[in-house]
C-alpha cells in the first residue's frame, strides 16, 4: 500500500490527535508525581543531562511519538542526510553540514565524491592563514600587524559566528588566545552599523573578511564596497590585497569584486547558510580571533553530537527527543512559540542564531512535494539569558500565554565568582533560578495555597498561577569550545527532526525572496527619482506616498 502523502493522514498522527484529549485532562502536577515516568524522561550523554519530565507528555505519548517517527521514516531520512542524498530537493542539493566537522579520515559523499578531503583542505588553509595573521607573518600594507577583524555578512553568514564568538569571549582558554585582538561583525546595511564597526579601528591594523555564500546579498555587498573604500581611502588601492579576504561558494564573484582568489576560503552548495557556522563562515573569523586549536575543539563537540544523533536509539537520542517533543507541542498541543532560555550570559546570542536556524528552516506552508499543509509547521522562537528574561517577559509565560521553554544551564561557570561570607555565590544564585523556574511553570500556585498563606481574597486571582506549563531542561557540564559545539549541533539536528516529521523541506528558504525582489524595484525607483528626476510610479498609494515623502526630505 502506498504511504500517505502527508504525515497528518497517517494512523500515528491521528492517534496522537486523539491522545491530546487524555493529556488535556492531566495536570503536570500529577505527571510529576509519577517517579517512574520522571526517571524515564531523563537522558545523559557525554556528561550532559536532558530532563524532559516537565513536558505535557506521558510515556505513552513518547511511544506514540516514536510511532509517528516511524511513519515519517525518520531513521531513513536521517541516514539520507548523512549519506549526502539530495534531500534539499527544491535546490537539488545535499545537506551535509555534518561533513564540515567530520574527522579527516571520514568518507561522506555528495554526487559520489567524498567531500571530506575538500573540507580539510579549507580547514588547513584557515589554520595556516590564521596562524600567519596571528603571529605577524601576514601583515597589513604598511607592515603593521592585523589585530582587528571585521567580518561582514548577514543571516547565516553572521548569526552563528556571532553566537560562538560571544560564547568564546568569556571562556578562560579561548579568551586567553584572543588577548590584544578584536573581532567585530558588520551585518546590517544601516549606516549606523558601519559607523559602529569602524569607530576606533585603524584600517592599517584591520583585516576585513567578507562572508557570503552567494556573494550577491545586497546588504553584504554594499557593506563590502563601503569598507573597501574605507581601506583604499586610508592606504591606497593596492592595500585591498592585504586587508580583505573572503568566504564564499562563489569564487568567480569574489575575484570580480577585487579580492585575490588565493585569499578566498571556499565552502560548498551542500552547506545551507544557517548551517554554515562550522564552515569557513565561522571557522575563519573565529580562528583569527581565538586560534585554530580552540575552533577545532568546537568542531569536535559538534561532531560528537552528529555521531550521537546518527547512532543513538531514539529513546536516548537527544536531538530526536527534542524534535519529537517540539512537534508534539506545536502540532498537537497547539503551542505556537518556544522560548530559549540559557542561564548563561555567554549564550546571549544563542536564541537569535536559533531563530534563524529554526524559523528559516521550518516556517513552511507546503510539504516537500509541494502539497498545501493542513497543519502549521515551525514555531516562533525567541529568548534571552536568565535571569534577565525573568525581569522582562516571564510574567507572560507564567500567567499569560503558555509557551514551552528550553532551560539551558551550565554546571561550572566560565567565570566563577566567590564572595566570602555570602549565602551563595553568583553562579549558585543564577542556578537557583534555573532550577526554580521550571517548577514554577509546571506546578503553579493554587488559590487554596494562597488562602492558607492568608493572601487577601481580592488578590487571590492575581496571585494564582495555573501551572501546567511545559518546559525542558538541558544541563551542560561546562561551557567550553567543545560544549558550545555540542549545543549548536543539538539544535541544528532538532530542527531537522521536526522538518523530517512534518514532511517539509527544512533546507530551502524561498520565503525570503519576495521581499528581496520588491526591494530591488524600490532601489531602482530611488535611483531614478534622485538622479534622473523621474516621478514615483508603479507602486500602490501607500508606498507611493511614503516614497515621495522620503525622497522629498532627503533630496536637499
Ligand atoms: O535572506 C536570507 C539568506 O539567504 C539566508 O538564508 C542566508 O543565511 C543569508 O541570506 C545570507 O546569504 P549569503 O551568505 O549568501 O550572503
TrEMBL record:
<protein>
    <recommendedName>
        <fullName>Glucose-6-phosphate isomerase</fullName>
        <ecNumber>5.3.1.9</ecNumber>
    </recommendedName>
</protein>
<dbReference type="GO" id="GO:0097367">
    <property type="term" value="F:carbohydrate derivative binding"/>
</dbReference>
<dbReference type="InterPro" id="IPR023096">
    <property type="entry name" value="G6P_Isomerase_C"/>
</dbReference>
<keyword id="KW-0963">Cytoplasm</keyword>
<keyword id="KW-0413">Isomerase</keyword>
<comment type="subunit">
    <text>Homodimer.</text>
</comment>
<dbReference type="GO" id="GO:0004347">
    <property type="term" value="F:glucose-6-phosphate isomerase activity"/>
</dbReference>
<dbReference type="InterPro" id="IPR046348">
    <property type="entry name" value="SIS_dom_sf"/>
</dbReference>
<keyword id="KW-0324">Glycolysis</keyword>
<dbReference type="InterPro" id="IPR035482">
    <property type="entry name" value="SIS_PGI_2"/>
</dbReference>
<dbReference type="InterPro" id="IPR018189">
    <property type="entry name" value="Phosphoglucose_isomerase_CS"/>
</dbReference>
<dbReference type="GO" id="GO:0048029">
    <property type="term" value="F:monosaccharide binding"/>
</dbReference>
<dbReference type="InterPro" id="IPR035476">
    <property type="entry name" value="SIS_PGI_1"/>
</dbReference>
<dbReference type="Pfam" id="PF00342">
    <property type="entry name" value="PGI"/>
</dbReference>
<dbReference type="GO" id="GO:0006096">
    <property type="term" value="P:glycolytic process"/>
</dbReference>
<dbReference type="InterPro" id="IPR001672">
    <property type="entry name" value="G6P_Isomerase"/>
</dbReference>
<comment type="similarity">
    <text>Belongs to the GPI family.</text>
</comment>
<dbReference type="GO" id="GO:0005829">
    <property type="term" value="C:cytosol"/>
</dbReference>
<dbReference type="GO" id="GO:0006094">
    <property type="term" value="P:gluconeogenesis"/>
</dbReference>
<comment type="pathway">
    <text>Carbohydrate degradation; glycolysis; D-glyceraldehyde 3-phosphate and glycerone phosphate from D-glucose: step 2/4.</text>
</comment>
<keyword id="KW-0312">Gluconeogenesis</keyword>
<dbReference type="GO" id="GO:0051156">
    <property type="term" value="P:glucose 6-phosphate metabolic process"/>
</dbReference>
